[in-house]
Amino acid sequence: MEKTDIKRWQRRLAAARGDREVDLLFVGGSIINVFNGTVERTSLAVFDGCIVGFGDYPAKETVDLAGRFVAPGFIEGHIHIESSKLTPARFTQAVVPHGTTTVIADPHEIANVRGIDGIRYMLDQTEDLPLDVFFMLPSCVPATTMETSGAALSAADLKQFLDDPKVLGIAELMNYPGAVSGDREVLEKVALAAGKMPVDGHAPGLTGRGLSAYLAAGPATDHECIRLDEAREKLARGMRIMIREGSTAHNLDALLPLVNPKTERRCLFVSDDRKPGDLMKRGHLDHILSRAVASGLDPITAVRMVTLNSAETFGLADRGGIGPGRRADLVVIDDLEDFRISSVWIKGVPVARYGSYLPDEQARNNALESGPLPIPEYSSRMLDVEDRGKPVKVIGLIPDQIVTVCRSALLPSRSGRLIADLREDIIKLAVIERYSGQGGHGIGFVQGIGLREGAMGSTIAHDSHNIIVCGADDESILTAVRRLKVMGGGQVVTSGEIVIAELPLPVAGLMSDRSISEVTAGEDGLITAAKKLGCHLPDPFMTLSFLALPVIPELKLTDRGLVDVNRFQLVSLYD
Description:
The protein is of the alpha/beta class. The chain has two domains: 73-317, Metal-dependent hydrolases (TIM Barrel, Alpha-Beta Barrel), CATH 3.20.20; 380-571, no CATH class. It is 25% helix and 26% strand. It contains 16 helices and 32 strands. An eight-stranded mixed sheet has the order 21-20-25-24-27-26-28-29. A seven-stranded mixed sheet has the order 3-2-7-16-17-18-19, with no helix packed on it. The mean pLDDT is 95.
């Protein structure tokens, strides 16, 4: 509420005193009180989109909860909307029925592709949505100098967005070596927060003096912990710990022991990346809540970790709990075990009921739809790797994680060129720059995907989102690259010269304006096709997308070559 709107404020106070009818009175249920950790059997009064009181009130409309529970609207503290492959309006339709009423998003995926225009697109596309979407300004575009992105954003570029009310702070500081060493460009971006806005962290595995230097640079949160001891150290040094349970990185089981009565107010649940199939079939934050409670966490503590804790982390004092003066963002829940959601209300307006999204959304202009990608026509020689009679470095996958390990293998060869070793589950990996038309590319090998034939390709390759393709043979890889070029971005599965399955993503090569059911069907078709070719990963394209991310240890591949993330430098393919 605007502070200057005194008359509106006075009307709300009159409703709170009981001097005028409230708009809604929720009766016959229990309120989850995240302030004192109790469940209250009482009625709840709402007026003008705001909670005004408890108990009996004269009301225009009464809502019978029939014994259900009312929780504050769920707040997603860290997510990349682009990872859902859905435009913001379609993403809203997907998550609101699961109780999500506020999202703090980092648009660095689309910013890496389209720069300032990408940020403006996300701001524009989230206007007038029922879902309240806030943004953290991407601090690492590109994430490093060891890859080619579609844009490079300086502190001066970001400064123009600081006065936008939807901008809350500076997004995850992925260049943690730069922050630790005091890199001027990194610090200039952090300085935009001026100590008044939060700065999100991103420092996998960082401990000791390095962690101290990183914290002194300004980051206050971290969502990259995969080990309990790491999370405990970061929490002890003042960080808020975001326990991530996404579509690729599953850290809930490892980190849940961190949460106890002494620490839980400094912990949040987040998803980071959530693919459309998981949103549709499993849910969003409601799924994390049910998982956490099934693992023994107190239900009210769990709810607090997606409401009040998230709100306080980002300075959103008008939400996060059910109390007078706060927004009437409410989730009606059948039970506190499975967290089945019967209805969702945003500012006192029903927006979802029994899994159905209620508002009638109008079509939106997706101005960032791309045409054919500006990449040259490649021949098979682009994929040649000389056999020097010595081992090569291989990216080794770790199940359910986005971190990898550096392995070594002596690969078979043909005509003096290294080829895949299918007996050892090692196939070729290529990252191809898709912005300048110059044809830059990096070639490597990856172990653990399972393909026995064919190839998989995508323009979702964190964070610069160049083309990434893995395959058992060169012909299938080239077919994938050519199809992605014509589609203007998306994902494909190929076998030889045949495209077996595809999912076009015309909005910056990252998102589709189709419904979540259509996008999920396309995604399922890709996974089914990949499995027929031998892939054994539950979500091969999500795994593939992180193999080009040079800020996540240990070994990654960009369009400029192999990156040793621990040393933060490009390295030779050969051992």
